[in-house]
């Protein structure tokens, strides 16, 4: 049995669906239990034993909005170890290094607590520009995207690709025992993204406003700017930590 913590969230629901499609038994854990899942609350330890009953592998996301999740997550991982869970896959971020304050503390200790492990470190989500995310709402309602990144480029990644890597890490015969940095097919600036949205929406989504300088800078975009659809397979590469531990280089997934 594989426990999917946050199994109704952005990546968790995709992980659970792919596991079911592959014929793997998965238990969805969320704060509101569904017919196929179990109630799980990071801050309510009375929900942890039931969630771990019969579980051999975990997909983990940190408690949302918690800047210091280690005091909450590490006792759960110790409980999982004592329950004979053998494999854990943790969703982190490309911006977080093992051992840094916050989730980095959990990354650093994961392999010491669970025999088989993997850490997923994706870049920014493509889904930041759809739905209710502030970037998406700003583009729709005001025709602008506000960012402090300036002209920096990001390899935005599709959560479906993150889920695919997660399922491989959870189910491959051999453990990955590494960190996977997961990026999208190409690096895009926010101006590139705004141009793509302009073409998709059929109207000028207008501007990218930078908050990096003291006086916000606004850059006008041209409707004819070449764009590339943001939908392709992810590329995973080992982090510096993975290279230090002698892990193999992952392939395209």
Q: What order do the helices and strands come in, and which of them pair?
A:
Elements: E1 2-5, H1 12-21, E2 26-30, E3 37-39, H2 48-52, E4 57-60, H3 70-82, E5 87-91, H4 103-113, E6 116-122, H5 134-142, E7 144-147, H6 159-171, E8 178-183, H7 190-201, E9 207-210, E10 217-220, E11 235-238, H8 240-244
Parallel strand pairs: 1-2, 1-4, 2-3, 4-5, 5-6, 6-8, 7-9
Antiparallel strand pairs: 8-11, 9-10
Helix pairs in contact: 1-6, 3-4
Give a short summary of the structure:
With 253 residues, this protein is of the alpha/beta class. It has helices at 12-21, 48-52, 70-82, 103-113, 134-142, 159-171, 190-201, 240-244, and strands at residues 2-5, 26-30, 37-39, 57-60, 87-91, 116-122, 144-147, 178-183, 207-210, 217-220, 235-238.
Given the helix and strand composition, which structural class is it?
alpha/beta
Q: Roughly what is the average pLDDT, rounded to an integer?
A: 76
How would you sum up the major sheet? 8 strands, mixed
How many β-strand stretches?
11
Order of helices and strands: EHEEHEHEHEHEHEHEEEH
* Molecular shape: globular
Give the strand order, joined by hyphens, for the main sheet: 3-2-1-4-5-6-8-11
User: What is the alpha-carbon Rg in Å?
Assistant: 20 Å
Fraction in beta strands: 15-25%
Query: What is the helical fraction, as a range of percent?
Result: 25-40%
């Amino acid at each position: 049995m594989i426990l999917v913590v946050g199994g109704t969230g952005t990546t968790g629901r995709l992980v659970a669906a792919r596991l079911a499609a592959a014929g793997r038994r998965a238990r969805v854990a969320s704060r509101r239990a569904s017919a196929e899942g179990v109630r799980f609350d990071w801050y309510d330890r009375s929900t942890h034993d039931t969630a771990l009953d019969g579980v051999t592998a975990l997909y983990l996301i940190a408690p949302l909005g918690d800047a210091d999740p280690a005091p909450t997550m590490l006792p759960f991982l110790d409980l999982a170890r004592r329950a004979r869970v053998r494999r854990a896959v943790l969703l982190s971020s490309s911006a977080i290094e093992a051992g840094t304050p916050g989730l980095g503390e959990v990354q650093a200790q994961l392999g010491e607590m669970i025999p088989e492990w993997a850490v997923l470190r994706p870049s920014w989500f493509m889904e930041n520009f759809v739905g209710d995310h502030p970037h998406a709402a700003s583009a729709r309602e005001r025709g602008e995207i506000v960012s402090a990144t300036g002209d920096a480029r990001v390899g935005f990644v599709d959560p479906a690709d993150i889920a695919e890597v997660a399922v491989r890490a959870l189910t491959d015969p051999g453990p990955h025992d590494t960190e996977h940095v997961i990026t999208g097919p190409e690096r895009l600036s926010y101006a590139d993204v705004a141009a793509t949205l302009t073409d998709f929406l059929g109207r000028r989504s207008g501007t990218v406003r930078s908050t990096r300088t003291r006086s916000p800078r606004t850059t006008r975009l041209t409707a004819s700017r070449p764009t590339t659809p943001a939908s392709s397979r992810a590329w995973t590469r080992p982090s510096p930590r993975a290279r230090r531990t002698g892990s193999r280089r992952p392939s395209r997934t």
